[in-house]
Structures are given as C-alpha cells and as structure tokens.
Amino acid sequence: MSALLTVSVLEPILADSRTVKTSLRPSWTRVLNEKNSLSVGASWLEMEYDTQQFSDYEQYGVDATWVRQLNERLNLQIGVYQSRFNSGVAPDIFNDSSLALTSSETLGLSTGLTRQFNEQLTGSITIGTRQVDTKTRFCGQYFLIFYFL
Questions:
Q1: What does the alpha-carbon distance between residue 99 and residue 89 come to, in Å, rounded to a whole number?
Q2: 95: number of Cβ within 10 Å
Q3: Thinking of the domain 5-139, which architecture would CATH place it in?
Q4: Which one, of 25, 84, 21, lies nearest residue 47 by Cα?
Q5: pLDDT confidence of residue 14
Q6: Rounded to whole angstroms, how far apart are CA atoms 61 and 18?
Q7: Minimal CA–CA distance to 7: which of 50, 61, 44?
Q8: What is the pTM of this model?
Q9: What are the sequence ranges of the domains in the chain?
C-alpha cells in the first residue's frame, strides 16, 4: 500500500493572487499469483483560488486494475474507474455577476497490452470507453427590494 499527500502553493496566476493545490492519492497492489495482480486506488484533488476570476474545484475518484502476465514480455490490463468533479462556490448576493456551478461524473473502462521489447524499450496500447454526465446550474443575479408604505 502506498499513499501520496501533496499540498502546494502555486505560482500566482494573476498578480496578488494565491492558488493552493491539495491532493491525496492512496493506492494498493496485491499480487494474486505469479501471473495475476490487482491494484485499487483513490484520488482527491482540491484547487483553491483567492481571486474571483477562477472557480475553486474538487475532483475525486476510485479505480481498479487487473493485470495478467500473458508471457515473459506481454501483459494484459483491464481497468475500471469512476470520478466526480465539482466546480463553483455558493453565490454571493452582493456580487453583480452570474455564477455557474458544475458537476461532472465519469465512469470508464479500459483494456490494454504492454510489451517489453528489450531492457530499454517498452510499448503499450490501450483502448477504452467512458461515459460522462455533466450538469451545470446557472445562478443569476439576486435583488433585494424593500417597499416602505
């Protein structure tokens, strides 16, 4: 089992702005027998901007990959993954601009072959399919009107 946690303060995209990137990627690999192994993992990424020109976002997912050794130099991989992406922040009623809140869910399946030609050269080919479901909600301007009689 392994895990990677990263917290980075990135170079400013705009003058006087700050970007914080936080990510976590734990993974686990189990050798089932001499020809088969199974890997599972998860990921989480959060980006925070202190400027109104970019939206904060969060992305997380899970994946699993089965690897079968066909011979000494050829492996077959089959993988499945699911991820989710969320962007935007709660609307500010005092801000005069509209805001789009976006969420996206992805489900995918891939299969591939990896061949080791010699000690320095390895080649691989992967094909797959994925389904992406994206929803965007637009939040317009809010007005507070008071009437006094």
A1: 8
A2: 11
A3: Beta Barrel (2.40)
A4: 21
A5: 56
A6: 26
A7: 44
A8: 0.71
A9: 5-139
